[in-house]
Amino acid sequence: MQKKVAFVFPGQGSQTVGMGKDLLERYPVARKTFEEADEALGFSISKLCFEGPEEDLRLTFNTQPAILTVSVAAYRILAEHGLKPAVAAGHSLGEYSALVASGALAFADAVRLVRKRGQFMQEAVPVGEGAMAAVMGLESAEIVAICQQVEQETGLAVQAVNFNCPGQIVIAGAAKGVEAASAALKAAGAKRAVALPVSAPFHSTLMKPAAARLAEALADVSIGQAAFPIISNVTAAPVTDGDTIRQLLVTQAASPVRWIESVEAMGSLGCDLFVEIGPGKVLSGFTKKILKEAETLNVEDVASLEKTLDYFREVR
């Protein structure tokens, strides 16, 4: 029986120096994608992807367009082979890759937008004043409640912001707020609360200034109808309408990523094969924890691409 396919696109943290290089060397459409990105940005994001240095690639305003470019290059190769999803989603930044794949957002616009998005997010909170931490082994509801309690007691912003998979929730906010919440969560029975190597408290209420600036940047960009439904990070529900997508992208910058519910939504639409497109396999790991019976594939380089194409050839 043919599987119903969901495409999922990774977010920040999946970047590695060298990503996308072998795809560019093998596939003209990948080369064209990197050239298009370089031209849209006015500098060589390709060189940064392939050669680093890593500390530059890790800067939010570089990471975002870099991951988007690799993801779209990989997607376009699949599209050339006639592969299309029933539905798609992306984790945070990955939502922009999903929108490009769906035809709702032009790639050149998306690359410029996520470059600005990274810049706005970085500038919203001075380096060192915000933080994020991954909390393992505590129920979502308890994490949300403890963060609210810490926020009330200390007056410092801290929220649960990435609901990644059962047993892994990310919190973000003011550095001291995250520190206080991490201690309270461990006292409540969390196995670990690990500080993440990020430069800003993404998706927390501290990102509201970034969301306001993003709204202005998005106002100048054309967003059309998506060719297939995109599960929104904000609502964990399908969306195809351009104007709604625009509003949700603004809200997304300072709102939690409801990834567990998003994957469950794709499952409830009948999807039982999830193809992760872009660097890394983080989302495949989450999927296996959310929908145990789902199959996962990924496309990040020539080897994983060929494995995925072979799978679809056999299925057909």
CATH topology of the largest domain: Malonyl-Coenzyme A Acyl Carrier Protein, domain 2
For the sheet with most strands, the description reads:
4 strands, parallel
Mean pLDDT: 96
CATH superfamily of the largest domain: Malonyl-Coenzyme A Acyl Carrier Protein, domain 2
User: Compute the gyration radius: what is it?
Assistant: 19 Å
Describe it.
It is a single chain. The chain is an alpha/beta fold. The protein folds into 2 domains: 5-124 and 206-315, 3-Layer(aba) Sandwich (Malonyl-Coenzyme A Acyl Carrier Protein, domain 2); 130-198, 2-Layer Sandwich (Alpha-Beta Plaits), CATH 3.30.70. It is built from 14 helices and 10 strands. The longest helix has 21 residues, at 60-80. The radius of gyration is 19 Å and the shape is globular.
Task: Throw out a few tags for this protein.
four-stranded antiparallel sheet; four-stranded parallel sheet; 316 residues; alpha/beta; Malonyl-Coenzyme A Acyl Carrier Protein, domain 2; 51% helix
Brief overview:
The chain has 14 helices and ten strands. The chain is α/β, with parallel strands linked by helices and 316 residues long. The termini are close together.
Structural topology:
Layout (H helix, E strand, L loop, with lengths): L4 E5 L11 H6 L1 H14 L3 H7 L2 H4 L2 H21 L6 E4 L3 H8 L5 H18 L5 E7 L3 H15 L3 E8 L2 E7 H13 L4 E4 L12 H12 L10 E2 L6 E2 L2 H11 L6 H10 L4 E5 L4 H9 L4 E5 L2 H14 L1
Parallel strand pairs: 1-2, 1-9, 9-10
Antiparallel strand pairs: 3-5, 3-6, 4-5, 7-8
Helix pairs in contact: 2-5, 2-7, 3-5, 5-6, 5-7, 7-10, 8-9, 10-11
